[in-house]
Specification:
This protein is mainly alpha-helical and 195 residues long. It is built from nine helices and two strands, in the order H-H-H-H-H-H-E-E-H-H-H. The protein has helices spanning 6-18, 21-29, 31-54, 56-66, 80-94, 97-121, 131-145, 152-167, 175-192; strands spanning 125-126, 129-130. Strand 1 and strand 2 (129-130) form a beta hairpin.
Length: 195
């Protein structure tokens, strides 16, 4: 159930979209530097979340800057932001550069497209998602893969995996981790199989 207003969810997704600077930084800095920086950023985010959850001072500081885009369910557990960094770090460690960067962009841009299009234009509901949002996720991710030199199967398989990962409600996992890891794993498997 969406407990934030549409405008709050849109602001939240704009922050999500802004995380696209991380895969851009990976592309500029290279794999080794990106992994080191992502380890540092992930540790900082974990410490930040622990401070926010466990101290009154941390809650006050967080609420001052991000309170309006925080879901009530995140009051006593980590926000999606921490999982963004964790998902990016896992993608950077597990996958080759092109796959890692694409899988990160699938999460930051594809997931944002799904939410914004689904909220604004979604009419065909399938569970807690909309067909229009899922199509937006797939199309945006497909456009991203067209910029890379990948086989047709990988070009379609990666976006399809990202769309599936975004569509499914993961009871014990955050989709900010699942989208880059699942889509990156599918692309890697397809490439390893020579498809």
């Amino acid at each position: 159930m969406n407990l934030l207003s549409i405008s709050q969810e849109r602001r939240r997704k704009l922050i999500h979209l802004a995380s696209s600077v991380i895969p851009l930084g990976y592309w500029i800095a290279g794999r080794e530097t990106a992994i080191i920086l992502l380890i540092i950023m992930t540790i900082v985010m974990i410490l930040f979340e622990l401070t926010r959850i466990n101290t009154a001072w941390g809650r006050r500081q967080y609420h001052r800057f991000f309170g309006s885009v925080t879901r009530p369910s995140e009051a006593r557990r980590p926000t999606g932001g921490m999982y963004v960094f964790l998902g990016y770090l896992l993608a950077a460690i597990l996958f080759a550069p092109t796959v890692a960067i694409l899988s990160m962009l699938f999460m930051s841009i594809g997931d944002t497209a799904a939410a914004l299009v689904g909220q604004r234009y979604g009419r065909i509901h399938i569970g807690h998602k909309t067909l229009e949002g899922s199509l937006a996720c797939f199309i945006v991710c497909l456009l991203l893969t067209l910029s890379a030199d990948l086989s047709p199967i990988v070009t379609i398989g990666g976006p399809a995996a990202a769309t599936i990962a975004e569509f499914i409600r993961w009871p014990l996992l955050n989709d900010n981790v699942v989208i880059p890891v699942f889509s990156g794993a599918i692309m890697t498997l397809l490439m390893t199989a020579g498809l």
